[in-house]
């Protein structure tokens, strides 16, 4: 049984003027909060079948909201990247220090529950809630979430969306626990690169109380508005069954944000910016400081950025037992990325054995690569 169910619609590709805008969606969500408990508020702001929630090609399957507002960009890669890497000034890598100045928590989170086929639930902040919070923020450098693009290289790397391969990686991690290859008593360190909504890393954080999980995303706003809220929604702010409605949506009140943010840092560090220079910021003085597991999904879409990602994996993975999992579409049309060129890059370096351990053949073909030291 697949982890997520998807339905693809080309309606808004053909008629882009019919796409709902950010103001409409955020306004609907605001109405829900003002009129909590009314029938109109119960459904206000929730995406309908075929709605585009954010950026080109992002559609939601409303037939099973328990599978969440998983935003998909199926076969859209040709048109979704707004720049090439030449002459791009990338944001430098740095540690994102979590405190009440860098992260502003709203009074409430709206979230939805995702149920894995292994009877494990994970919560993620609702996309409309993220956009509303961003729109209300006074930050100097906000992401343009209304931009008609999935990716703007050097500016925005897609972290507001939850991509298909993140679901595949969740599915595969569940299988590893089911087979006994991973266990809840395992410790060590895990790193999720290009984390965005961070569901695979959060899954490891929740399943393994002794493990440390660090998170990296290009955009600080993604870490503050998506990654950290999702961690809280699965730890200190996890909704009870009584809080969740029939559509698997919950509204969670937030109090004592300073202590909540302190809890986030007990088992995690956060990093933003480009992969170039990231290994210096990670400050791994010896092999024991490196990571036992590295996770990444939908990060090999652009062939020009693959060497940077691979270098981080190679320099950050603990020898000789470290394992990396790279989840991606088999091919990203128009930008040269995909599983095969990344696999060839790894094989040419000769350090890792690399193999496909998971694949999806429905609709857009996707795979997960496993990297282990030779």
UniProtKB/TrEMBL annotation:
GO terms classed as biological process: methylation
One GO cellular component, as annotated: cytoplasm
Subcellular location(s) per record: Cytoplasm; Nucleus
Keywords carried by this UniProt record: Cytoplasm, Methyltransferase, Nucleus, S-adenosyl-L-methionine, Transferase
EC number: 2.1.1.85
InterPro entries, alphabetized: Methyltransf_16, SAM-dependent_MTases_sf
Family the UniProt entry places it in: Belongs to the methyltransferase superfamily. METTL18 family.
Naturally occurring in which organism (per UniProt): Paraglomus occultum
Major localisation: cytoplasm
Entry's Gene Ontology molecular function annotations: protein-L-histidine N-tele-methyltransferase activity
Lineage top rank: taxon: Eukaryota
Protein name in UniProt: protein-histidine N-methyltransferase
Origin organism lineage: Eukaryota, Fungi, Fungi incertae sedis, Mucoromycota, Glomeromycotina
